[in-house]
């Protein structure tokens, strides 16, 4: 029924729901950046800069061509509901991929917080677009170089993850300002060095000029490293994965040094995740065009993180996440100094003692410890009527050959006897990095060997 005075030939009035829809359509086109990142664009009106672009300080553009949305028959019926809409270009949704196939315009509500359907997969989360990372750090460059010296003197011998002349040169050139992955690594190194200063690690200059600033420096560097690493590891670009793996391994050392075991295993868990998705545990998966220096760095990182994983597992009872049986990575070359590693090869110095020989010996010990873990598991009591008891019984027989423990003990003794005297004597810190690293490695060998002997003792073998 029409009201008095209405013409019967007039088109029927548009329903109120239709009117609301017409108002909401004005906010249905995302800018080019939000469209590319599949994120919410507000206000989403061409000619008006959106909130995200203003926050990032970039130009908000609508240069991509408009496209008609949805199946034509469905669109035609919707357009017929409003006479004015039939003569105008159809609005485009916030992001073409953000709606289910065949979704109708009625589902779009710009006044609600959740605009449209859930975005189609895969989606790049909009909050951490890697290409837009910008350097923003307040620690002085000279302080960073000073912390690098502390790392080299006190930490490098146990975490030799760098070809040092190359790494030092890159930091001196402030390349950390230009590369997100390298920035994360540099900050993690500075955080570990700051922690050592705070804990009173002996260094040549005592007290060190930065000793009183160690705590704020640690906080700043650790936070900066964490801020440079995306919270979602899948957001890390392929070319950045190696640097982020290295940063995570060093951050794990930072937390372990501070007694924060939960964060330590979290960082190492992230490292293991990146290792797995990159196939880093298989050397043949590494890029074929890397130099000898880069190859040696990768070997050191892999086995260094393996040592740390085994140390945490055996010292604190956590599960081990890096299995030696699943790896195919060679030990790093036992060079006297990193300058002996060139782009294409290794310079051997038979008359010099490499601290990496002792470092590799520690890897041997941790591999034996991991095997003993498996063997010790089979010695645990189990009931024959329990599920899995048959397999447990078989594994117990396979992993417990006669004289296994005594043979392992003899092997350890023989390998230790073959080490140079420099790697057997624990000495006081002198301030000379080349000399001090022998004493630090000797201490590490002593502790790890005693740990292995204690585990052998638990399995029932008499050590002495």
Automatic annotation (TrEMBL):
The keyword Ligase does not apply. One of its GO terms (molecular function) is DNA-binding transcription factor activity, RNA polymerase II-specific. Keywords: Metal-binding, Nucleus. It holds the Pfam family Zn_clus. One of its GO terms (biological process) is DNA-templated transcription. Residues 30-62 form the Zn(2)-C6 fungal-type domain. It comes from the Eukaryota. PROSITE patterns: ZN2_CY6_FUNGAL_2. Signal peptide: none annotated. Residues 1-46, 61-125 are annotated as: Disordered. The keyword Metal-binding applies. Gene3D superfamilies: Zn(2)-C6 fungal-type DNA-binding domain. This is Zn(2)-C6 fungal-type domain-containing protein.
């Amino acid at each position: 029924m029409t009201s008095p005075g209405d013409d019967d030939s007039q088109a029927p009035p548009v329903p109120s729901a239709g009117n609301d829809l017409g108002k909401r359509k004005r906010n249905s086109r995302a800018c080019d950046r939000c469209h590319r990142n599949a994120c919410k664009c507000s206000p989403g009106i061409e000619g008006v800069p959106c909130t995200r672009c203003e926050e990032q300080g970039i130009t908000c553009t609508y240069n991509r061509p408009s496209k008609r949305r949805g199946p034509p028959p469905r669109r035609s019926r919707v357009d017929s509901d409003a006479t004015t809409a039939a003569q105008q270009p159809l609005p485009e949704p916030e992001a073409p991929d953000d709606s289910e196939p065949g979704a109708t315009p009625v589902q779009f509500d710009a006044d609600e917080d959740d605009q449209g359907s859930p975005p189609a997969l895969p989606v790049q989360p909009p909050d951490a677009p890697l290409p837009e990372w910008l350097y923003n750090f307040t620690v002085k460059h000279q302080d960073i170089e000073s912390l690098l010296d502390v790392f080299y003197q006190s930490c490098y011998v146990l975490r030799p993850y760098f070809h040092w002349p190359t790494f030092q040169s890159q930091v001196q050139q402030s390349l950390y300002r230009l590369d997100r992955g390298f920035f994360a690594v540099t900050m993690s190194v500075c955080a570990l060095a700051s922690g050592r200063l705070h804990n009173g690690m002996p260094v040549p200059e005592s007290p060190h000029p930065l000793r009183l600033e160690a705590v704020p420096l640690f906080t700043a560097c650790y936070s900066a490293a964490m801020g440079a690493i995306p919270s979602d590891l899948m957001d890390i670009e392929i070319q950045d994965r190696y640097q982020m793996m290295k940063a995570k391994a060093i951050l794990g050392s930072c937390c372990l040094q501070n007694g924060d075991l939960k964060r330590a295993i979290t960082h190492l868990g992230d490292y293991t995740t990146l290792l797995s998705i990159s196939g880093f545990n298989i050397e043949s998966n590494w890029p074929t065009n890397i130099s000898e220096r880069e190859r040696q760095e990768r070997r050191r990182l892999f086995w260094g993180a393996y040592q740390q994983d085994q140390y945490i597992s055996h010292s604190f009872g956590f599960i081990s996440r890096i299995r030696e049986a699943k790896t195919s990575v060679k030990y790093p070359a036992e060079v006297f100094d990193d300058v002996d590693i060139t782009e294409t090869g290794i310079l051997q110095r038979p008359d010099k003692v490499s601290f990496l020989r002792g470092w590799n010996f520690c890897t041997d010990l941790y591999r034996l410890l991991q095997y003993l873990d498996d063997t010790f598991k089979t010695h645990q009591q189990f009931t024959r009527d329990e599920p899995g008891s048959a397999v447990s019984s078989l594994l117990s027989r396979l992993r417990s050959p006669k004289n296994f423990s005594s043979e392992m003990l003899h092997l350890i003794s023989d390998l230790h006897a073959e080490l140079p005297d420099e790697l057997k004597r624990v000495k006081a810190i002198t301030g000379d990095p080349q000399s001090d690293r022998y004493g630090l490695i000797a201490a590490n060998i002593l502790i790890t060997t005693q740990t292995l002997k204690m585990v052998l003792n638990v399995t029932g073998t008499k050590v002495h």
